[in-house]
Amino acid sequence: MPDQKPLVFADLDDTLFQTRRKMNGQPLHQQAAVAGNGDPRKSSFMTARQLAMFNWLNASTELIPVTARSGDAFDRVDLPFGSWAIISNGAVILEPDGTRHAQWAGRMQDILQPLAATMDDILEQGRAAAVLPDLDDRSWIVTEGALPPYVVFKLNTVTEASLLGLEALPIPITGWTRHFNSETLALIPPGSGKAAAAEYLHRLLNPDDERPTLGFGDSLSDLSYMAQMDVLMIPSRSQIADTL
């Protein structure tokens, strides 16, 4: 009998867990991800209710992470996922054993490799535009092997003025996804992205379209893949909830 477990495509950061700064004084029940520099102040944690929700979803559904985290950052997530995963804003699909799905890797090679010079230009334009008194940021091109999945600008110091400055950063691009939430601005090329990867994986794992599907996310840009699902779920404290 075909697998009838629901498929849940779930964002990670600010959906299943968040950094200490965003806990708003709630007790830190369990560490969910280690910061790249090992600084516990920048690591990510779950509340008791988030952990209970994760355990429930992981036991009763096929839970698929859909995250902007690169391969290195995803490796620092300490949660027992057992299915496929979409990482690096859709540029990489991992099979349940952690290997990269070859067919999707080939597609991304064709899309992303020719854009390497374009991403260099976008990064330089963004850095030139970000030279403002209130904008203390760092920026880089995320890489997966030889591929450049997307460009990111991230605030070092979060203030109302810096958030407004980052959101309005003038970078002339057409057809790219412009993701802005909290202290991060990511620029993702067409043909890639969470929505494209989720659509591909949905068709692969649910070819007869008989399994219930749920999309879980916090950012407005997450709606691109969540809208493909039967049911949408959002945290009550999230960018999506704030716009309702």
Can you tell me about this structure?
By secondary structure, the protein is an alpha/beta fold. It folds into two domains: 7-109 and 192-243, 3-Layer(aba) Sandwich (Rossmann fold); 114-188. The chain has eight helices and 13 strands. It has a four-stranded parallel β-sheet. Strands 8-9-11-10 form a four-stranded antiparallel β-sheet. The longest helix is centred in the middle third of the chain and has 14 residues, at 116-129. The model has no long low-confidence stretch (mean pLDDT 92).
Question: Strands across the major sheet, in which order?
Answer: 5-1-12-13
Mean pLDDT, all residues: 92
CATH-assigned homologous superfamily of the largest domain: HAD superfamily/HAD-like
Largest sheet: 4 strands, parallel
Query: Structural class, from secondary structure content?
Result: alpha/beta
Query: Strand content of the residues, in percent?
Result: 15-25%
Radius of gyration of CA atoms, rounded to a whole number:
18 Å
Helix content: 25-40%
CATH topology of the largest domain: Rossmann fold
Number of domains: 2
- Helical segment count: 8
**What is the number of E strands?**
13
Instruction: Give the uncertain stretches in residue-range form.
Output: none
| N-to-C CA distance | 41 Å
| CATH class value of the largest domain | Alpha Beta
Shape: globular
The CATH architecture name of the largest domain reads 3-Layer(aba) Sandwich
SSE arrangement, N to C: EEEEHEHEEHHEEHEEHEHEH
